[in-house]
Structure formats: C-alpha cells, structure tokens
Design a protein that fits this description.
43% helix; 15% strand; disordered C terminus
Length: 374
C-alpha cells in the first residue's frame, strides 16, 4: 500500500474510531513513516543523550559522542530499491515491515511458507499477536506510556495493512514472486493504464516482493491482472487478478475495529459501517501514480471535512532529528564530525522497529562499527 492508505485512510479511520485529532494525526503519520524512514548510516549524538532503553543501538563511541545505528524501515530512492536486492536488506527491512510472514521465520523451516497471508484480527498470526500485545499495553499503560504505546500501534498498523496489498508475495527473492502484469485499469476513469507500469521491463527484475508488478499492488485506485508462476520447477503461470479498492476496504474495517477496541469500544455497527465504507471507498478512488500529496489532501478533505489531512515525511522526520551541526573531529585534523540532535521519539521509533525485526527473524541484528570511529 502507499500513502493513500497508510496515511489518508488510516487518518480517517483513527478519527472515526474516536481518537482526538492530534492522536489520529500521530497514528497516521507513523503508519506512513514506516515507508519513508530510509536512514542507513549511523548517526552521531552526545552519548549522555542516548536513553538507557536505546543504549544497545550504540555501535561506537568517540570522546563523549556515540554512534547510533538506525533501524531502517523504508526505501524511498531508486538507490534504496537497488539495495533491496541484497539479502541483508530483505531480512532486516523488506520482510519485517512490509512482507511479514504468518510466523517467526525460525518457526517456518520451509521457505515457501514465508509468503504473506492476509491478516485478520480474530485469526492468530505474528502481526495480529504483536497488535494484540500493543493494545494490551495501551489499555493498561499509564498516561506517561500512552505516547509510546500509540507509536507502537501506529507502526504495526502499516505492516498489518501491507498483508492485504502484498498477500502471496515474499520479502525475499523467491520463485513465487516471479510475475508479469497482464493489465492495469484505473478504477476512476476505467482507462487501461498498463503501459505506465512498464510490464516488460519490470518482469526482468529480480523476483523480490512484488517488484515484477511495479507499484500496482500498492495503489488503491486500480484493478489489475497478472501472471504468477505456479511452481519452482515448472514454467507454468496462472492468471489472477485483484481490485485493490475492494481489497483495501476489508483492511479498513479490520483496522477501524482494532482502533475502536484500543479505546474500549465494540466493533462498529454494520449499518454505520455501510455508510462509512462508502466514504472510505470514495477516498480510494484517486490516481496515485505519480503521487500528488496536495491533490490527495484536497480529495480526502472533501470527503471527511470534519477532520484535517496533511502529511510531510520531512516534518515527521524533524520530530525525530531536530537538527545537525558540524564540530571539529576529535581525532582527525581538518575534518568535521556531524552531530545530530535526536529526540526521545527518535529512540522510541528505532527501538520499537527493532522489536518487530526481532519478532520476525527470531534474532537481533548486531550493531555495525561506525565508520567515523575507525
């Protein structure tokens, strides 16, 4: 899924569930930010500013400064996409946050079972278990921990939603990801827009996730058909299809009722859901290729005028990293050391993201040695 669901739909759902405007915005911001947080290099900060709960992220130290290893969750640039061909990134970024398996990898010895399955809140799975635990902590936590628990919920909702867009695909390179687009139709205009997705070129890329289908599985306003390989040892393909706007409605209801349960509310009445469903579906019917944030903000505001819509990944990032400055390098003459001002939310985000990585892989990634400290 892309911005139209992870931020805009989730913002509407959080508000309709009963969260106050500021908390609904917070949930939606960090639901989307999972895609946008592509920090890879260690960040330098004053050592005393690293809270105890995040000290294990320190990969190196130098004269009172610490190098903190970010827990990368997203990929934004083309260079990021190229790097996803590396197995390490498939293990630590793609799979935990976007293609979560139904169980911990270590409990699934057959790699064929690592494919994504649609998650439902009433059906046991790894992601629903994590969300259930997050809800328990949110409901039982005191006011001081409400912020942390809300952040955990927001981040996990991204991964939950992606089980609908990424169902049957895998975060690792695998034969089951070998696919080729047959057709893509714009649900708004009924126009055939297959050529925009360059199916011939994308078919040739490594079979990681849904890369062979370009961005079609992530866009709410399209329906599409594709050929999927049937078995590892046979060159046989099956034609299948999906209407994302309808599939995403199922995810929306699950998320709405989950958020209501976090506030101690019962599932939404079916009559009320039918009315809300029409508005959510209308929100999905807008082109997001390429993404135009201003158009999306206007589109959703017209449908849900009782709340507000505004997303900026840079603004969210600035709540985590408030600034940077250069100081003379303590060990290298005529060189500078870039020191970042990191907030408590920065450390919370990275530690909570690491919780998910550990839950998926059954192990913790070792902090790398900071280059600047070599």
């Amino acid at each position: 899924m892309n911005l139209n669901f992870h931020y805009f739909t989730v913002k509407a759902l959080a508000f309709e569930a009963g969260f106050e405007e500021n908390e609904a915005q917070f949930i939606a911001n960090f639901s989307q930010f999972i895609d946008d947080y592509d920090k890879e290099r260690d960040l330098c900060c004053k050592k005393e500013e690293v809270p105890d709960f995040a000290k294990y992220l320190i990969s190196g130290e130098i004269f009172g400064y610490a190098f903190v290893s970010p827990v990368t969750t997203g990929f934004v640039s083309w260079f990021d996409m190229v790097l996803l061909m590396l197995k390490a990134r498939q293990k630590w970024i793609v799979t935990p946050f976007h293609f979560i398996p139904v169980k911990c990898i270590k409990d699934l010895p057959n790699k064929d079972d690592w494919r994504v399955q649609v998650a439902r809140m009433d059906t046991p799975s790894l992601i629903t278990g994590l969300l259930a635990n997050a809800r328990t902590q949110f409901l039982s936590g005191d006011a001081a921990n409400r912020h942390k628990n809300l952040l955990r919920i927001a981040m996990l909702l991204h991964t939950f939603a992606d089980t609908y867009a990424h169902q049957s695909f895998m975060g690792y390179e695998h034969w089951s990801n070998e696919t080729c687009l047959s057709s893509v139709t714009d649900d708004c205009t009924q126009e055939n827009i297959t050529d925009k997705y360059e199916p011939k070129e994308y078919k040739l890329l490594p079979h990681v996730g849904h890369v062979n289908l370009n961005s079609a599985p992530d866009e709410s306003g399209v329906r599409y058909q594709w050929y999927a390989k049937k078995a590892a040892d046979k060159e046989e393909y099956a034609l299948t299809g999906r209407d994302n706007s309808l599939t995403y409605i199922d995810a929306s209801k699950e998320i709405l009722n989950y958020l209501r349960s976090c506030l101690g509310k019962p599932p939404i009445d079916e009559k009320d859901w039918r009315q809300l469903q029409l508005r959510i579906h209308k929100g999905s019917l807008i082109s997001t290729n390429p993404i135009d944030i201003t158009a999306l903000e206007d589109h959703w505001t017209a449908i849900f005028p009782e709340t507000t819509f505004h997303y900026s990944s840079n603004e969210v990032l600035k709540t985590l990293i408030t600034g940077q400055k250069e100081i003379p390098h303590p060990k290298k003459e005529n060189e500078a050391l870039t020191v970042s001002a990191l907030t408590n939310d920065f450390f919370l985000y990275n530690v909570l993201a690491d919780e998910t990585r550990v839950a998926v892989n059954g192990e913790r990634k070792a902090a790398e040695i900071a280059v600047a400290d070599a």
